[in-house]
Amino acid sequence: MKPHTLQHLSLKNLKSVCSTFLLAAAIISLVACSDNGSSSSSSGSNSSGGGSISVSGGGVKGPLAGAVVTAFAIDFSAADFKGSAVGSGSTNSQAQIQNLALPFPLNPPYLIEITADADTIDITTGMTPVISTMRTVITQAMLDSGEQIYATPLTTMAVDIAIRD
User: Fold this and answer.
1) What b/e string do you get for 120-130 counting C-beta neighbours within 10 Å, with b at 16 or more?
2) Residues 108, 84, 114, 121, CA torsion sign
3) Omega of the bond prior to 3 within 30 degrees of 0, cis?
4) Higher pLDDT pick, 53 / 79
5) SS3 for 131?
6) What φ, ψ does residue 50 adopt, rounded to 5°?
7) How many CB atoms lie within 10 A of CB 9?
8) Band of residue 57 on the pLDDT scale cut at 50, 70, 90
9) Residues 6+ apart with CB under 8 A from 106
10) Which of 55, 72, 105, 150 is 20 to 30 A from 114, alpha carbon to alpha carbon?
11) Residues 18, 41: Cα–Cα separation, whole Å
């Protein structure tokens, strides 16, 4: 590339490249920090049609019981990267994700958002959560390994930075 070609890159294109790079870095970090000792189950015969894959894990700051869990397709053109909702569930009394199934055919990565509502409690304190929304990203590798998915303040910051930049 000629040196003067860099001058022709628009700020929007540069921002898009940086956002994609930061999101990829956040996804890699999440995969590296994940718990490989757990599993998930899937129903349906393959990933090309019909069925779904169950997702397990939780929202942790302390653990959020009774929270709403929503999986979104990632839309890089949306300001918050949220595409259409592809699945929803909740967290149980032990703050574990329940009833969240992603339909086949899978099209990761997905943005997972765990949101406190009027019934949500932080099971560490027994009180209303201080942080009411947490986010993380699920990759194909995470789904393939069956590991549990956790949204934390750190994953939320990583996702938010990737989206903002």
Assistant:
1) bbbbeeeeebe
2) negative
3) no
4) 79
5) coil
6) 65, 165
7) 10
8) low
9) 47, 53, 140, 143
10) 105
11) 35
Place of tokens 């899978």: 106
Segment 133-160 shows an average pLDDT of: 93
Q: pLDDT band at 32, cuts 50/70/90? A: very low
DSSP-H helix ranges across 35-152: 140-145
Pairing of strands 57-59, 149-151: parallel
**Is residue 41 predicted with pLDDT exceeding 50?**
no
Residues written for the chain: 165
**Which tokens go with 49?**
């049609």
pLDDT computed for residue 13 by the predictor? 54
Cα-Cα end-to-end distance for the chain: 25
Q: How far apart are CA 130 and CA 114, in angstroms?
A: 13
Contact 66, 117 (CB under 8 A): yes
